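Quick illustration, no need to memorize.
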Amino acid sequence: MIKNSKDRKYLLFYRNISDEGIKSLSHRLKDSLFTTVDFSSNNIGDKGAKYLTEILKDTQITCLILTNNDIGAEGAKFLAEYLKHSRVTEVNLSSNNIGDEGAKSLVQHLIQSRITEMNLSSNNIGNEGAKSLSYLLEHSRVTKVNFSSNNIGAEGAKSLAVHLKGSQVTEMNLSYNNIRVEGAKSLAIHLRYSQVTEVNLSSNNIGDEGAEFLAQFLQYSRLSKINLSSNKIGNKGAQTLGKYLSYIGVTELNLSSNFIGHEGAKSLAQNLHYSQVTKVNLSSNNIEDEGIKFLAKNLNGSRVTELNLHSNNIGDEGATFLAQNLKHSQVSELNLSSNKIGNEGAKFLAHHLEKSRVTKLNLSSNNIGDIGAKYLASYLKYSVVTKICLNSNEIGDSGAKFFGDILYYTRVTELNLNSNNIGDEGVKSLCHFLEHSRVSKVDLSSNKIEDKGALSLAEHLKYSQVTEVNLSSNYIRIEGAKSIALYLKDSLVTEVNLSFNYIGGEGATFLAQHLKGSRVTKMDLSSNNIRDEGAKFLAQHLKDSQVTELNLSSNHIGYEGAKSLGQHLKDSRVTQVNLSFNHIGDEGTKYLALHLKDSQVTEVDLSYCNIGY
């Protein structure tokens, strides 16, 4: 995308651009006052990197994104030479192939640069490259670094660890690097001398021994956030971490996807109330009902406010025990998604919500059904819950009706019922009381809603507090789109998502005609087969709307639709537009580029639009 306002951020989301294609873009980029340029997911190689540096050397860029290209060591060298004297403070070269040689080139030139944030993830960098980069960290301004998904190993981790002492780094991501126990030990020893407050060591095979070593030295560090997910940590590692929790300053602990089990959960739980931890993620650890009993008992007196127990084989018994202890805890956000909680578990959770501090509750992907929905609905009015997520729970029309009946009496502002079995009757019942509730965000995507359901919702929007509505992936056609369009101008809705429906060009035309007078600022009409006809009508009416973000991806829009959008976007308030997965081609892209420079557009996605073929 292109920009010529000094205050405006400039992003380019072209796709399939080759080295030669970079040359052809030079005339569009040279005089632009953009600050951010994004060339991710193209076919840019070393030559393209060289061409790009020649084009960009006199620009105002502060953020350069070249992720997922074919840049190797030679291209990294060209980029490094450019970056040394540039204004760039943030560079993202993830998912290329710069290797150890490229890493060395970066070090030689970036020590005196302005770079503070660097992403070199997925670049085949080994321990030799890590050694070079460690020197850069010690002698540069870099504060945030991402080296994830490389081949750094234990030796590379040791080199980085030793040089942390003299660096300004505060955030470090070393996930997916197979640093193993030895790497974890070295990091543990040297973290205490560094400025690092956040570290991600997920997926590194550190096991129990590595976890034990980290736990013993964390008490001397400045760490407040640590991610140890997917590290084969079992009961023994969890036990040692639990033992030292009271001595360290960590407030956010992620141990998801390990092998902690109920015994490990017990060890952690016993020390929670002595720690500073406020956010704990134990998802995917096979904790089961027995482990939940220990966690629930020890929540009393702890500082934990966010608890993630996603995918832990928790059934009704565990849910019941947790529910009974919620009133003694500080927990305000509770994630129990993807467990085995049925209507009995839902019943006890509902009953005890009224005495808890829980404001955000996620029970998605369980087995709650209509009966469980009834229990939850009955007690919600006595709770302080403001956000509830019940997607993928086999809730049908009767379950939706139960929620409709009590919404007026609750504090709920966000209601997520996506991926259930709610049809037109369920929507009608739910929406009847919507107008008297506090609900501002409603997600009914991936249900069985057709035109009649869309009409019921639209009719009640006028008197409701709803500002965001998601009806994507339903069975809404032209008449449903017309109903929504008619009532939009009298509602408070600012964001509407109708993606993956069947509104077609005629439905899009009707929506376009009724945007005038509405408050809608974000509209997603992707995957609706609106074609050039619908795109033209939307384009013509954008000038009379408040729309700033528009998603028209996957709509069979061709040159004519792109041409019309180009002509009319300059008179609109639109700042972000997504046209990916259409058939715009080179000519359509040129036309858009020519006209967008006079618009307010700051971000445009033209990925997979047959450009450069």
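Residues 1-11 have pLDDT under 50 and may be disordered.
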